[in-house]
Amino acid sequence: MKKDDCERLSVAQARNANAVGKKVLLKGWVRTRRDSKGGFSFVELNDGSSMGNIQIIAPNTLSNYESVITKLNTGCSIWATGTIKESPGQGQATEMEAEEIGLYGDAPSTYPLQKKQHSLEFLRSIAHLRPRTNTFGAVERIRNRVSFSIHQYFQELGFYYVHTPLITASDCEGAGQMFRVSTLDPDNPPRTEEGKIDYTQDFFGKPSYLTVSGQLEGETYACGLGKIYTFGPTFRAENSNTTRHLAEFWMIEPEAAFYELEDNMVLAEGLLKRIFADVLKYCPEDMAFFNKMMDKTIIETLQHIIESDFVRLTYTEAIDILIASKQKFEYKVEWGVDLQSEHERYLTEEHFKKPVILYNYPRTIKPFYMKVNDDGKTVRAMDVLVPKIGEIIGGSEREWDLSILEQRMDEQKMDKTHYWWYEDLRRFGSVPHSGFGLGFERVILFITGIANIRDVIPFPRTPGLCEF
Ligand code: 4AD
Ligand code: MG
């Protein structure tokens, strides 16, 4: 039978017991090869469709046995035809008895991924080859599954997927951490009479940036279609060189009209539980790998989270708990301060030992768009905190009273003229509404037990790093 007449299976399909007896074609990359004295060569093949490899048994009667097969190196790409057999070996249901094997691309011994354990730091330096490792194959399959589950969750609840712009003139979070988008010549920009850079001559006729959040534009669609979500890249020029911050990361932002803070909390808790349940259900092999290699408690932790309720706690109650804990924190705790990751982690890791939804934060530490409570001191913000990561979700009910919104913008010294369209939502048919942002890479960190956020995104962008 010729190669092209055989049914092409993925390695994952060929590893399934129901493939036994079929004559098939496989294609992939050689992970290892060893020759046995009995006149066979054993080739471990992987094609990314699963964590596990399939073993291909090549007898020395194959015509190219000496010239090709005994020279197959780790990393080279091949095709193989043969019959899938039940495997007598441990830990694998099937193997292939090869009839023909052909080489696509050789990989000389300089291939950096020779069979041994490589550190995640080393793999980061070869981010273009790391998709061929167990760890990054698994990370990507988890990212793929979680993306799909997020879309399913919102679609089943009747949310529309809206595409908000990546280039914007407004700073949603008001933190001034935006990357400028400009076509002006940096060596010779046009100047105004006062000597400042003249952005009226720039591409958009005014200063423009990469977005930090799709929320403001998302609100306009929620106030028309009812329930929407975005799922796209966001950019932050914050110089935080931590294991939880990226300059480019993906964010999921639902926004719903007529949702109050309580509805927002239910939506957020349901989303995380759905994601965790789905990875356990659909990615058992990858999850077993992470549970073994990264953190031996993750499967148990995810199961526990799915089965129990999140804690709901006001900011004020959290401050009381932190002060009463008598812990030696690096940053002092008192009412009014922004919580640091050490505080968030104490609450969720030590005190409650499960996810916590913290709400009603002081107005002074939160962005202008959050709804002010009747006490005048706090806003209807909510952050979802999880062990080891801290904040995974940030959201709020939105201020829908125009005069209070304007007061908040003045308070934060914002230029209201940029937000005339955002204010219009409050001028015409204003409604209570709420939403939140889930950091996609923070979820993947949590699920995989990987310690550094640079290792859960294909090509990390962080201060000083824009390779690949
Ligand atoms: O809390 P943040 O800043 O909230 C917003 O941007 C709101 N506009 C969202 C909304 O209400 N629609 O960011 C939301 C989440 C954080 O909880 C965190 O998980 C993640 O985004 N995040 C980051 N992830 C990786 N690297 C960074 N630099 C991040 N900054 C925020
Ligand atoms: Mg936040």
Compact summary:
With 468 residues, this protein is α+β, with helices and mostly antiparallel strands.
Your description of this structure?
The protein is 29% helix and 24% strand. With 468 residues, it is α+β, with helices and mostly antiparallel strands. An 8-stranded mixed beta sheet has the order 7-11-12-17-16-15-14-13, sandwiched between helices. The model has no long low-confidence stretch (mean pLDDT 96). Residues 391, 394 line the site of magnesium ion. 4-amino-1,4-dioxobutan-2-aminium adenosine-5'-monophosphate binds next to strand 12, strand 16, strand 17 and helix 12.
Residues in helices, as a percent range: 25-40%
Mean pLDDT rating = 96
Gap between N and C termini, in Å? 42 Å
Largest sheet geometry: 8 strands, mixed
Ligands in the model, by name, code or SMILES, are:
4-amino-1,4-dioxobutan-2-aminium adenosine-5'-monophosphate, magnesium ion
- Low-confidence stretches are none
Strand arrangement in the largest pleated sheet:
7-11-12-17-16-15-14-13
Strand content: 15-25%
Coarse structural class:
alpha+beta
SSE ordering: EHEEEEEHHEEEEHEEHHHEHHEEEHHEH
Shape: elongated
- Count of helical segments? 12
